[in-house]
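Figure caption, in words: inputs first, then the predicted bound structure.
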Amino acid sequence: MTDVMDSEAVPETTRADWQSDQEVRWCPGCGDYSILTALQLLLPDLGVRREKTVFISGIGCAARFPYYMNTYGMHSIHGRAPAIATGLALARPDLDIWVVGGDGDMLSIGGNHLIHALRRNTNLNILLFNNQIYGLTKGQFSPTSETGKITKSSPVGLISEPFNPISVAIGAEASFVARTHDMDRKHLQEMFARAHAHSGASFVEVYQNCNVFNDGAFAEITKKDARDDMLINLVHGEPIQFGSEGQFGVVQSVDGVEIVNVSDVGVESLLVHDETRSNPSTAFALSRLASRPNTATPVGVFRAVEREEYASAMSDQVMGVTEERGRGQLKDLLHSLPTWEV
Amino acid sequence: MTDVVEQSELEAVDRVIIRFAGDSGDGMQLTGDRFTTASAINGNDLATFPDYPAEIRAPAGSLAGVSAFQVQISDHDIMTPGDAPEVMVAMNPAALKSDLHLLTPGGTLIVNNDTFEERNLAKAGYDYNPLEEGDDLSGYRTISVPMTSLTKEACKELGVKPRDAERSKNFFALGLVSWMYSRPIEPTLDWIDQRFAGKDQIIAANKAAFSAGHIYGESAELGDQRVVVKAAPLASGTYTNINGNTALSWGLIAASQLADLPLFLGSYPITPASDILHELAKHKAFGVTTFQAEDEIAAVGAALGASYGGHLGITTTSGPGVALKSETMGLAISLELPLVIINIQRGGPSTGLPTKTEAADLLMAMYGRHGESPMPIVAAKTPSECFFAAIEACRIALEHRTPVMLLSDGYLANGSEPWLLPDVDGLEPINIEFDTEYNHIGEDGEAGYWPYLRDENLVRSMAIPGTPNLMHRIGGIEKEDGSGNISYDPTNHAHMVEVRAERVKRVKVPDIEVAGDPDAEILVVGWGSTWGSITSAMGRVRSNGHKVAHAHLSHLNPFPKNLGEVLEGRTHILVPEMNLGQLSLMLRAEYLVDAKSISKVAGQPFTAGELEQTILEYIEGKSKS
Ligand SMILES: Cc1ncc(C[n+]2csc(CCOP(=O)(O)OP(=O)(O)O)c2C)c(N)n1
Ligand code: SF4
Ligand SMILES: [Mg+2]
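Bound structure (magnesium ion present):
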């Protein structure tokens, strides 16, 4: 039914075509707005059809996202979006599926689904809005909250160590891993476009400000005047260099990577960023440069490698067996064990 | 062979119950299975009951490691694998110790006496050798055979190492029992060739052991033991011997074809449901996708995702897995999407008895979710009926856009029976159409799409992703009826709760039929796998001149419309269940009748004898409580 359409050119759309008729209900000033806007503005440029686009989310503030998109969408249950999206992707490889969720949704209750979705490499664009807090339930710590944090559920200070979502994704064998933040529309769009273009599971961590329960969590690195010195922009094929004058750089060190003054080592000693390294160790080391978003932090694409996409491999198996044996006949199936006549 | 000639001269018995018991490593399931197939080909009616431990390799020779396979073969229609075996094969002391009490008084016991040495006796908890001392075996006819040494002897010439030869001893037992019941030999020899293809030594050893067992019967003056069970006068047609999980898997494939939708199975391995995953994984040529997920929650989530995409989404599991899936079932109820959840019940709670049967998840199926979240429930009653129960569950799910729970259990899953293959062209198609057009004119006069517009059965409209123009969002937050937009309005919520309840009530369910003596004062109401035991018990009670009626439920939610009438005016309503009285509780609540629970929670199905006894007690008025 839709095959006919596919051969036709994708109709031109504008931002308005991607906006649903539902009123957006995040708190005024919430970082989620700028992410939504960035994506709605980007989609017309991606050459995709609205009816072939699906947003699947779990529960949380971030997870309200699908309601605002004039596409197909499902607002499901807490943590399970990657699992539901995996079933949809396996059934319907023709669709363009985005998964949206918060740090609690995807790294706490849904952590298991996230890592397996990444490991399997199903064609999903997974966007994790990391605000380092539980927004919807009004301010408890999340698995990305910093140690010592005072929240409603940790009034004397949080004891546990946080996850580093990029490290988690790389450890889970993700084939595409990127980080961006809600203060830079262009960068958001660039990362979303790259994630969309990637075949397999793409993971994008978005630093997102929850101005009600965790205001300013990323301000030290994302404020306009701080960015130059605090954001390490990873660019494929380029030496990793940052700072208002390009005075800082990243070099390989004994047990990973470290930040140096370029004047001490020379530009030629800097690590040249290569997203496509099959060995994930360097990408992982880069993810460890900042343990919290209050020191120089890499953003951009950490890793983008080609790996077999799960849903197409699965449908190849189904088609392969069908071709080999012929389309199954129910009657033959019922006669496939020993039979006898009475 | 000469068997054909001989058969007519042999004494004929109408049925026999045989139990093969041995160590888990002794291959008893294989032996029982093979004997069953040979009997099926012989034209007998039969029913099987594999009874094996949860441990893959419990310590060899221990009581925990005893694995048994019971089969009843007969020359007439039977419903169960029988109560007490008349013949028991015990391959080691542990098997004797754990299962001897099951053997009917006067029954035949065939023991492998080679294993009755000190170490094995001690492992089974004997401080003496029951073959030589004590009176454990008095009252039975014991045939004590050195199976291990005779098997080794038979394999000697073949150059098979004694240790390897020993492994074929179950084929010796099979050969001996096959001789006793005059089973044809060739099919088993052919089967050994196929089953062990490429392993010539094993083929040779198994065949030698099988023949040695057969010859043993012939030569050891066991002639008076030899009988024949004639073919049963079954309806004519083509038969296959099928177990519940295979029938269920095939039913799912049939449903997918009847609905013309690809089948998607999301599953996580768990006994006794895993075989459905294994079976479906083999049938990709039917457009089947099987997805082994990271856990049960992901399995049901993926199935729901596939349903949302327009496929037939199914998830299979057992009780503990159902517990994990309950939140997603609630979501499916709220989304009003088709989904089939299959629960092959086992003994609980918690890990419970993974390999033993129980049917104690009825109330969980009915009420085990938060909020008012009703869901249709279908239950299978025999191994072969699992085929039709699967189709029925899929039909309800697809035609009513609802999750459906299909209940089977370990007893049906692994038990087998001959199945008269249905005419597949006669199966009724399943109707599901997805929307492709706008279905609503808004206040602004513009055409639009409302996902929660309903038909006369309150079934909502459904457009799948990929359909141009009909983009819409669905979710688990309460929604406005019609538009599907988020709504926290109190009256709308009350309305939606009612709608979801009414939707299930409007599922069409066939009237329940009453078997036996329809107007009898005593009515036995059953559901699920108790059908066989109840039917057999009924037969016995009625053949003694008593009147009793039997109604068996395949639909537990909604109940058949005529159930209230059927229950009315009985002196006793008896409800046998493998739980502490879950259906009886439902009947009491729904119909205000005094439904008496007859319960068994021993990890074993009811025997017909137990139920016969209970029914008779009520008839004779002894049990008036
Ligand atoms: C099974 C279940 N447990 C708990 C909740 C409550 N809950 C809703 S959202 C949420 C956490 C939200 O945090 P996050 O995922 O980081 O999203 P955010 O609101 O910050 O965007 C919790 C605990 C729920 N809805 N379902
Ligand atoms: S609570 Fe925080 S994350 Fe949620 S909408 Fe408000 S500002 Fe945004
Ligand atoms: Mg959060």
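Chain B has a mean pLDDT of 94.
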